[in-house]
Amino acid sequence: MARGVRPNHATILEDEGPREECAVFGIYGADEASAHTTLGLHALQHRGQEATGIVSFDGKRFHAQRGVGEVGTVLNKEDVIERLVGHAAIGHNRYATTGEGAVHNIQPLFAEFAFGGFAIAHNGNLTNAQALHDRLVHGGSLFQSTTDTEVIVHLIARSMRSTLVDRLVDALHQVEGAYSLVALSQKKLIGVRDPLGIRPLVLGRLGDAHIMASESCAFDIIGAEFIRDVEPGELLVIDESGITSLFPFAKQPSRFCVFEYIYFARPDSVMEGRGVYEARKRIGAELAAESHPEGGADVIVPVPDSGVPAAIGYAAASGVPFEYGIIRNHYVGRTFIEPTAQIRHLGVKLKHNANRSMVEGKRIILVDDSIVRGTTSRKIVEMMRSAGAKEIHMRISSPPTANPCYYGIDTPEKDDLIAARLDPAGIAKEIGADSLAFISIDGLYRAMGKDGRDNAAPAFCDACFTGDYPIRLIDRDNKKAAKRDPKPIA
Amino acid sequence: MARGVRPNHATILEDEGPREECAVFGIYGADEASAHTTLGLHALQHRGQEATGIVSFDGKRFHAQRGVGEVGTVLNKEDVIERLVGHAAIGHNRYATTGEGAVHNIQPLFAEFAFGGFAIAHNGNLTNAQALHDRLVHGGSLFQSTTDTEVIVHLIARSMRSTLVDRLVDALHQVEGAYSLVALSQKKLIGVRDPLGIRPLVLGRLGDAHIMASESCAFDIIGAEFIRDVEPGELLVIDESGITSLFPFAKQPSRFCVFEYIYFARPDSVMEGRGVYEARKRIGAELAAESHPEGGADVIVPVPDSGVPAAIGYAAASGVPFEYGIIRNHYVGRTFIEPTAQIRHLGVKLKHNANRSMVEGKRIILVDDSIVRGTTSRKIVEMMRSAGAKEIHMRISSPPTANPCYYGIDTPEKDDLIAARLDPAGIAKEIGADSLAFISIDGLYRAMGKDGRDNAAPAFCDACFTGDYPIRLIDRDNKKAAKRDPKPIA
Amino acid sequence: MARGVRPNHATILEDEGPREECAVFGIYGADEASAHTTLGLHALQHRGQEATGIVSFDGKRFHAQRGVGEVGTVLNKEDVIERLVGHAAIGHNRYATTGEGAVHNIQPLFAEFAFGGFAIAHNGNLTNAQALHDRLVHGGSLFQSTTDTEVIVHLIARSMRSTLVDRLVDALHQVEGAYSLVALSQKKLIGVRDPLGIRPLVLGRLGDAHIMASESCAFDIIGAEFIRDVEPGELLVIDESGITSLFPFAKQPSRFCVFEYIYFARPDSVMEGRGVYEARKRIGAELAAESHPEGGADVIVPVPDSGVPAAIGYAAASGVPFEYGIIRNHYVGRTFIEPTAQIRHLGVKLKHNANRSMVEGKRIILVDDSIVRGTTSRKIVEMMRSAGAKEIHMRISSPPTANPCYYGIDTPEKDDLIAARLDPAGIAKEIGADSLAFISIDGLYRAMGKDGRDNAAPAFCDACFTGDYPIRLIDRDNKKAAKRDPKPIA
Amino acid sequence: MARGVRPNHATILEDEGPREECAVFGIYGADEASAHTTLGLHALQHRGQEATGIVSFDGKRFHAQRGVGEVGTVLNKEDVIERLVGHAAIGHNRYATTGEGAVHNIQPLFAEFAFGGFAIAHNGNLTNAQALHDRLVHGGSLFQSTTDTEVIVHLIARSMRSTLVDRLVDALHQVEGAYSLVALSQKKLIGVRDPLGIRPLVLGRLGDAHIMASESCAFDIIGAEFIRDVEPGELLVIDESGITSLFPFAKQPSRFCVFEYIYFARPDSVMEGRGVYEARKRIGAELAAESHPEGGADVIVPVPDSGVPAAIGYAAASGVPFEYGIIRNHYVGRTFIEPTAQIRHLGVKLKHNANRSMVEGKRIILVDDSIVRGTTSRKIVEMMRSAGAKEIHMRISSPPTANPCYYGIDTPEKDDLIAARLDPAGIAKEIGADSLAFISIDGLYRAMGKDGRDNAAPAFCDACFTGDYPIRLIDRDNKKAAKRDPKPIA
To answer: Which of C64, C66, C114 is facing D137, going by the closest CB pair?
Structure first.
């Protein structure tokens, strides 16, 4: 979806992390397809918590339920599930926008073409969505949402090809960017991954039904079997006659998003043949090998929860014990009273608290997955310091995040990225740590089983670290070229 | 809006009446345009109670608030009004549909054209909306609602004309049916009445601001001055340079809906130069002249509230005293517990009760505005009978309603209209009245100041009484010709 | 209930009228007793719209549902009715208080005594509630509400008598004030009217079931038969063995509230042998006889809705035609946006509008039931004036309201009553009418069938007009004697 | 609170654990006392998630906000915090009851005594509440809730002593059971722990303000300083003149609840001088020493989250690596669609998922804190088995839970406790584990720093393991003696 849309959180420590924007799920050939989809979306809740939706097809009619909130909120009523009947369904999780417009943006989008209904859900970001949008509007198309997904829908509607699959391919030949799509027509469930395979999409099976989802953990929750990753540039058509695999794009070397391993994916998912938990442990071990403090340390403390596997890997590699020196309050997901100025200076710890007995008087190594703005890291270091830590060495299981993502991850502008402004020593000073080290880009590739980064043909998309963007940024470049007039909104 | 959409009420006596489907309101040149619009929509609440909305423009941006419920529910929060800033706004009241789709159908519709934003609200019904819809979809247009209003929006988007007004005229030349529209662009407030002027639209002024509304009572609530009716076929453009009047259609004799006088409009509104309350009184007087029972009567009892003015006119003309023999419970608007079978046989009177002291032992004349299905009339007659009425003579201030409306009023299918099946004597028998008379069609025209109905050139649309439809019914005829396949829904 | 509790309305014209505070309903011996009670409370909605509740008994257990809102809101769900099972139930309508405390105040109150459960609902006001409350608290009783009803409950709990009826009588011998109570124990439905019979309570029958209610219109809605008024000072016990009538108090001449006839009761109710609608018509006729303007008038205009029957009586007596010169918007019950200062000066007419064609150029007689603060009357007169009325003569179907009610009607303090400050001429000037007349106190009694007020033994409570309070005002006098300290609230 | 009240959860794995029922918090002498209390209650959310409330005092008035839901739901609006003004406040978290009665049960309770307002909040359970309740009701007291806390309030109201503290002590001399109370009067904040100190209560300071809370983590969140535990049998009075410590009960050896260490308390809390996280690690180490499988193991897998610290301790002691073999979905707190029968057989894993790469082909040791009914353990073992675990050895960081708690923890009846029916071998068979061991009772005491359990004078309350109840169970014994009649409910 479009990068401009930002969630609006208030909890203190969640401000920091980059945020994945979407999850997709599709199933064909199952009784109670919507119930399966609801469960799959629940397992993928970490990829988008603020809106969700399902469109199902029962052989005659499509049924939709979309709303603001988590899966359990939007899809929790039995009658909803009873209403969303059918043997095929697709679903989507995303961050919501505020205001009236939000409802139109919640996916899956649904359109009624001349040849029938069509639903689509998208994870990723198109880099020429605005350009295509403007062209379509000039031709008389009316947009109802601000999602880039709707661009694809209009391109299908305007295509002169005759079959739905041909029209979809026609549309995808016009878009650029990262996308993993699932779509549902009256006959077919379709899944596509962009030619570079930047965002994940996996294929599974449950009895006679076929499933596609952003991550394999969505198969586990319903006891489905993982078959394989959908390949980069592959378009899968699932219908009564089974699965058909098409490769409608010119072949290119793939560039899967390495940040999925570092942060976004659930640790129990398997992506492109690698278990995420193990990948994180290997990154932790590599990090220990590269940058363990010379003076040693007493304890490895993960920043929960995303820093835990890397910390376990670091602890095992370094021989220093792993301990929960920070305790997370699991009830903070909910909106919370905004502390007034008078009590804000107390340094309120809504989400984390120091576990003083594990920290006091100790040399600690804090392991986290990334530093984005730096504000959270500063608070964590302060918390450790006031709990009595003697030395605080921060170790980060990713290289410095110095560039925004344009392929579907919600990151701040470059100016707000601390690593775009400061080197590690400068960051260490700003966050108050005694030392700070990031894993090197080559160390990261080694942890992923490579010999290091092959700069001529890198195996992953690592643009947020390297600035090496594998897909043109047309909208961004147009925007830079000419500051656009403010647009009316509805 | 499309006739297919039906509200789903449960209150017992409200089932009977025909229901107007919409009100529109537009204002240009006022501070707090949305507050004025909210009040105007409140005054027009009787024309549609189940959804409402406003789109405003503040010189830079459009702002929208639309929701299911009455005006006081959807637009009651100060912050909403604070958000809907601007000097121009349009608003709409309507009956809501159920399910997720409802939200997309709530007007005003908003579209972003290549040349800017555009909002539109519609009272009436297009008789070729489905035909146009199908043609547009085949050309690649995507519909988001099931309102016929969106057909107009797409026709504007696809028009090859250059200015907005020209595009709107281009679109209106393609549609057939009854419509009173208000529309808002970044520069203009536009109002249009269809060439026959079937639905009402009036023009007013408040200081420097200009206003258009379905009825003049929407001016009174804000102290605005009534200027004149918008004329049939007239297109008014209001902008910085003042008011411009266009007549883009071939001139035709007008055919204003006579049922607005009989039932829909508020009694304090003035339409086409006639006060509605007075018109109803005159109909009542004419009814007395035509059909006062030979044996005389003791008391004139209105069926509240819509039968009151005609009953007052009838009483004055006949010399028989007017009394409230039926008391209405004003709290019945709210949804109410569905009585169980066990107590339903008690003949529960949720909305009306007999005022026994005015009825017992008397020969009463019950005055009502119309009989649609006949079920309410039967209950009312029963209630009077069990309150001790000696004779019950029912007098109806409209001719028999024997034909459905296709021009914006929600009436049952012909088969459900009791007057399509039975003559007055048969109806009297079915509802249990001692006698029943409707005003004659000529009597109705006389009450409206004519010499009777000029069948060659009737002054009003009276299709629901006469079956003489002044505008072609294209969709209806197509539907009769070929039962369409069931369509997928979202 | 206690006078201190005030509803908080914002609609403009509703601020004026005095407000009845409660309705009660009880039924014994019916299947689906709660469904009958719900319908009865609905018919009594005019006596209290802001909170409602039911307690039922199913032979083993009591069930309760109480909430803020109208009957249709609080009691509309089928499952609620399904949950409130039983053959006996009592119910209550009232105005709600704001804040958390409100929930504790909603009646019926329920208490579990040593000898079993007990529910009670009350219409009226105790004049020594505070004194009793303070005495009970000193003895260790804990209050959960601020209703005077709870005082009765505690007196029952503390009574040393052995049977429930004896304990209730013991409690009632200690309280002073106006009350019509219904109560429900595991064995009995009990109804009581205070010795003067100030508030109404009627007895009815539906098949084998017995019913008590504040007004007879609650019988009509379920098709029940009116038997008789419960007599002043009578205590009715309804149980398996039928009805038992007790008169536990010393006999006194009754003093029924005359304002019930003038304003509060529904016109279709019958109270103390008089139909309310007819009583109002007779008051209107008497008013015409007393004070018809010498110069004559063109039209009688009721202030809707409560002024209508008196206006009909006035019109018939004076020979001047009755016309709806003011149209009421029936949708104003709902909360509405508070107009901002900028548009408030427009004189927004949310609830009423002039019907200009009936008013313009005419000498009108405005008939209303009462003037409390005078603000509404001023607005109504202004509205008529700006609709072109040539002369405006206001006629009021009650004597001047110059004293607060302490017996269960929510009236302003004496300082806020315009008739306590000004004579009719002064009020006429303040509200802008050309003339103003109230019915005389003797005229009122004549309309009620008396020869005039017998000052030695008046037939009604008319304290709000005469200041002749038939029951001591202990709490008011104590309060005057010593301004109490502010009390903590919860 | 009373044991009879049970929360009603549906999430699958949460069914198993015993549940703490309450948290209390009180503060005196702070600006924005309610904001501090809100934050403290948030930190204590793990002790009760279904209802919460605050009562504050501003020097003149008490203010209350209580509702169903988590702290962030009930207390999230700024205006609530703005309304709850004052320098002193108490708060409470608890499990909610369903139905109308729930609202009356939400604490803090508030009562207005003759000498002023009084609020109280309670963690624990009285074992003679029913007996006292019955006695009070016979004396004319009326109860509004079903909490045992209200018994204390009535005892205070009925006490003949003169000061509030004396009345409270008088009341507490009559109750038996476990309780940690905070109470607020117009002058004082009071805290009490029962003579055995079964439930926790700690004292802290923030600037000039004093605080009491169930756990020290409530101090950390607002940066307050931990001073000490309130001692068993101690009654602390905090007012303008500072802190006064009273010991109104006969001294007894303390019996702190050992289950607070094992499961309930947050790991970052410090209780009775012991850090909870460290205590759990020591239990894990002791467990390894007692029962490490002879054949060895490949990996230690905690059942998240409560099993984690013990698993870390176990891993360190045994030298076997600690790995997250089970991944928890953090979004499951929300209510979730009840899976239909058709998909339930899939073994849906809403809350946990196997991390296959850490489990497959391995001999694993599953570490959990307790086994209550056994159903969760069976599902966890199945999940591990189907993820390919070669051997599954379950190790439990508490002795077998064979007896219900009557002192404030919500446990099933004895018949539902699997350890009351089966020995460890039988349980292992039922849950499908290859082996199962609980820590021994002496091992548990060793981990707590003792030489083992001194059966003559055990240092802790361990009744759930040993059946050795240190306080009489009067209500339970009365109930056994005579099955009580069903009571009416409201």
So the answer is: C114
Taking the CA of residue A186 and the nearest CA in chain B, the distance in Å comes to: 9
CB burial of residue A208 (10 Å; 0-12, 13-18, 19+) = exposed
Phi-psi region of D185 (alpha: psi -120 to 50; beta: other; left: phi over 0): beta
Facing C490 at nearest CB: one of D55, D143, D490: D55
Across the interface, whether the CB atoms of D488 and C57 are under 8 A apart is answered yes
Q: Which residues neighbour D159 within 8 Å (Cβ) at sequence distance 6 or greater?
A: C140, D166, D167, D170, D171
Q: Is D43's CB within 8 Å of A335's CB?
A: no
- Consecutive H or E run containing D233: none
Q: Which residue among B103, B186, B486 places its CB closest to the CB of A60? A: B486
Inter-chain CB proximity B144 and A140 less than 8 Å: no
CA separation for the pair D68, D321 (Å, rounded): 43
Q: Pseudo-torsion of CA D280, D285, D287, D290, nearest 10°?
A: -150
Q: Do B353 and C70 touch (CB under 8 A)?
A: no
DSSP bridge partners of D238: D189, D243
List chain B residues with CB under 8 Å of C383.
none
- Which amino acid would we find at residue D77? K
Buried b (16+ CB within 10 A) or exposed e, B233-253: bbbbbbbeeeeeeeebbeeee
Residue that has been written with the tokens 């489907």 in this structure:
B21
Cβ neighbours, 10 Å, residue D344: 12
pLDDT (tens digit, 0 to 9) for every residue of chain A, 490 residues total? 333 222 222 222 233 455 557 999 999 999 889 999 999 999 999 998 888 999 999 999 999 998 888 888 888 766 667 789 999 999 999 864 444 445 677 899 999 998 899 999 999 999 999 999 999 999 999 998 888 899 999 999 999 999 999 999 999 999 999 999 999 999 999 999 999 999 999 999 999 999 999 999 999 999 999 999 999 999 999 999 999 999 999 999 999 999 999 999 999 999 999 999 999 999 999 999 999 999 999 999 999 888 999 999 999 999 999 999 999 887 754 434 455 555 555 555 678 899 999 999 999 999 999 999 999 899 999 999 999 999 999 999 999 999 999 999 888 889 999 999 999 999 999 999 999 999 999 999 999 999 999 999 999 999 999 999 999 999 999 988 865 454 444 4
The token pair at B467 is: 């079956």
Residue D405 falls in the annotated catalytic set: no
Nearest CA in chain C to B46: C331
Single-letter code of the amino acid located at A181: L
Measure the CA–CA gap between A290 and A367, rounded to whole angstroms. Answer: 14
Residue in A closest to B104 by C-alpha = A104
- Which of these is catalytic: C22, C257, C461, C464? C22
Strand partners, D93: D23, D52
Residue D220 CA to residue A387 CA, distance in Å, equals 10
Predicted TM-score (pTM) above 0.90: no
Domains in chain C, ordered, with CATH? 13-255 (3.60.20.10), 278-329+336-455 (3.40.50.2020)
| Cα distance between residue B118 and residue D365, in whole Å | 66
Q: How far does B439 lie from chain C, in Å, by closest CA?
A: 22
| Closest C-alpha among C66, C117, C118 to residue C93 | C66
Chain B hits for A53, Cβ within 8 Å: none
CA dist C100 and C106 (Å) reads 11
Q: Is B60's CB within 8 Å of A112's CB?
A: no
Q: Do chain D and chain B touch with ≥3 beta carbon pairs under 8 Å?
A: no
Minimum-distance CB partner of B116 among A55, A134, A488 = A488
> What chain B residue is nearest to C329 in terms of C-alpha separation?
B43
Nearest chain C alpha carbon to D135: C114
